[in-house]
Amino acid sequence: MKQEETIPNRKLTNRIEIKIRFSEVDSIKMAWHGSYVKYMEDGREAFGREFGLEYMRMFDSGYLAPIVDMHLQYKQSVTIDDIIVVETTYMPSKAAKLMFDYNIYRKSDHTLVLHATTIQLFMTKAGEFETSTPPFLAEWRQKWNQ
Question: What pTM, to 2 d.p., does this model score?
Fold first, then answer.
């Protein structure tokens, strides 16, 4: 019997660790609020590498995926040399978009530092928004049963 190539339906989450650097904190020694956007980008890139949804795959398929909506809720602060865990979770949608949910924790005590969400829409390289699901995304969703 041929083994099924589709992954069972499950939540797709990637986790990475990042050490807070001096250049990422402000004058009161807290990670600057804008640094979290970069941490989320690092999380999306790591998610793409783990699950085969890299930005270059989108680009090579003829699409860009700009963020059109972002919500951040700051819960706690982190400082120099703290290690954070960035959890990036794909949120399924039938629409032609990518939605991610983020939880960022301080590793030492597992305190939630930030909760956030992003939405990305697809654009052609000509700059037009794509209203139907790009073929590469349809294939990806099918593979991961999303």
Answer: 0.91
